[in-house]
């Protein structure tokens, strides 16, 4: 079961970043597609499934943030990703700010992915 949930977690993460890139592009381009109902709901449903898998994996592996450094790094980076993603898609006042924060969010996601792969908070250092 662990492997199935882990693979689901990875799949939901890939869907999450794909949806983010699409929505960030629409935000920077000021596309009305960003206002479609599915574009506002599907990412949140996917992210809830992603988080549910993460909670299962933590409990099954007995690895937790603030006990395991790499999970602490992932959690803190997730908070940065949420903030930068919100500015990129919703709160950025100009196209330039939305583009900058889209790139910052994508870089943060890349860090989260690298930490997950290596189980090290010091990826690339």
Shape type: globular
Question: How much of the residues is beta strand, in percent?
Answer: under 5%
How many beta-strand runs?
0
Quick check: average pLDDT? 96
Rg measurement, Å = 15 Å
What percentage of residues falls in helices of 4 or more residues? over 70%
Topology:
Blueprint: H1 2-28, H2 37-61, H3 69-91, H4 95-118
Helix pairs in contact: 1-2, 1-3, 1-4, 3-4
Description of the molecule:
- There is one protein chain.
- By secondary structure, this protein is an all-alpha fold.
- The protein has helices spanning 2-28, 37-61, 69-91, 95-118.
Structure keywords:
125 residues; 4 helices
In short:
By secondary structure, this protein is mostly helical. The protein contains four helices and no strands. The model has no long low-confidence stretch (mean pLDDT 96).
């Amino acid at each position: 079961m662990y492997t199935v949930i882990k693979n689901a977690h990875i799949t939901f993460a890939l869907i999450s970043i794909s949806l983010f890139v699409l929505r960030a592009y629409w935000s920077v381009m000021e596309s009305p597609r960003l206002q479609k109902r599915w574009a506002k709901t599907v990412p949140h449903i996917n992210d809830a499934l992603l988080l549910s898998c993460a909670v299962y994996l933590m409990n099954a592996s007995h690895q937790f943030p603030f006990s395991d450094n790499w999970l602490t790094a992932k959690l803190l980076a997730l908070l940065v990703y949420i903030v930068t993603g919100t500015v990129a898609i919703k709160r950025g006042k100009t196209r330039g700010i939305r583009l900058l924060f889209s790139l910052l969010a994508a870089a943060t996601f890349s860090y989260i992915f690298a930490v997950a792969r290596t189980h090290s908070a010091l990826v690339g250092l």
